[in-house]
Amino acid sequence: MTNNKTFAVMDAGAEEIFVLAASRSKNGDHTLEGFNRVPRAVSPGDKDGGLYPPAENVREALDGLSRKTGKRFHKVYAGISSPSVKVISSSGSVLISRYGREVNFRDIRKCIDIGSLCRIPLDREVLHKIVTGFSVDGESPIRDPEGLEAMKLGVNVNMLTINATTLGNMSRVISRAGYIPAGFVFSPFACSFRVFAEEDRMDRTAFIVPHRKRTEILLFSFGDLEDCKVLDRSIEDSANTPGYSDADEKYGWLAEEITSMNGWRKMRRIVIPGARFPSEEFMRFMETTFGMPLRVGFPSARPFEGLPEDAPGYAAALGILDHLRNEAQGMSGRGSPAKRLFHQVAGFLDEYF
What's the whole-model pTM score? Predict the structure, then answer.
């Protein structure tokens, strides 16, 4: 019998597929049920592990997870990454009240929805809406306007978009494996949730995620995603290229890509996840070239979580779980029922009287 509260999370890396099972608890949190990993097979026509794992490979990982945990599930939340990812900036504002009143959670949600109404090309889908700051009656930046008095609330939003075909093809892979695609999260974005320390979230941090045939770069400013790139070139290949004798020849291309990104000049530190971190030569090159500290990060365990010994490989999958938890808490709203009712009545009066 399938438990509707149990679901799976999948991160299909270039070399292995990492999956975990979790169950939703009554308080909106998640309980980890178990982990599984299988070698990544190569799809027909793909070289060195393409964007989409074979459906049979996905079924092998998820069926094995079900057997190991004794749990049955249908829904799968998956990590996804593609060179097509792009950040599109937008902004908007809403009138709170002609006379001014306290900003509530409902006002914030409405403002974000309006701030996200920019022209998105038809061939793209929005993966994430990242709020980078609010304004209250023209005063900015404000991190959390809830509870402040305002007549007008404004917001700036960075929307992380991806090619719609890429999203559709990944959905088909999961469906052909016999499961239901429940949602997608940008893999390195999710990975940062588990790898970043508190000082990384509270600073301007460049996050570089190396893979066997790909490199992902994300720039964060105080926890908000500023820009990102997914490159079809790997640090590992550059290090092993014949004829390249010094670090500038091996890694200079990466430095050029990073410095061309929006927000790079504001960065103050670099973090690389510990699952597949590059050589000492590369890390010395980065620290010398950019003049900032570089740290190798490993996933941290949440209270009452028992992580496996190979936890660094599950960093993105665990981060997806964190993202789902944050989304669920955001949907539930904040404050007591009586306070929420008061704000709903106040909003009605402002709108119609």
Answer: 0.87
Task: Provide the CATH number for the domain around residue 128.
Answer: 3.30.1490.110
**Phi, psi angles (nearest 5°) of residue 140:** -150, 165
Cα–Cα distances in angstroms (integers) from residue 330 to residues 272, 282, 324, in the given order? 29, 39, 10
Residue-range definition of the domain harbouring residue 242: 198-297
244 token code pair: 């390249």
Domain count for the chain, please give it.
3
d(Cα 110, Cα 145) in Å, to the nearest integer?
Answer: 13
CA atoms 233, 235, 237, 241: torsion sign: positive
pLDDT tens digits for range 82-138: 999 999 999 999 999 888 899 999 999 999 999 998 888 899 999 999 999 999 998
Q: Are 281 and 216 in contact (CB under 8 A)?
A: no
Structure tokens of 22? 């979790």
Q: In what order do the strands lie in the sheet with 139-142?
A: 86-95, 152-163, 124-136, 139-142
- Say yes or no: 57 and 92 in one domain: no
Check if the beta carbon of residue 163 is closer than 8 Å to that of residue 86: no
Question: pLDDT tens for residues 152-166?
Answer: 999 999 999 999 999
The pLDDT, as a whole number, for residue 191 is 95
Long-range contacts of 194-197 (CB under 8 A, 24+ apart): 194/299, 194/300, 194/315, 194/316, 194/318, 194/319, 194/322, 195/271, 195/273, 195/274, 195/297, 195/298, 195/299, 195/315, 195/319, 196/220, 196/271, 196/297, 197/295, 197/297, 197/300
Would you state the pLDDT for residue 172?
Answer: 97
Instruction: Say if 216 falls within a structural domain.
Output: yes
Q: Do 25 and 168 lie in a common domain? A: yes
Q: What percent of the chain has pLDDT over 90?
A: 66
Q: Which of 15-29, 93-107, 241-255, 271-285 holds the top average pLDDT?
A: 93-107
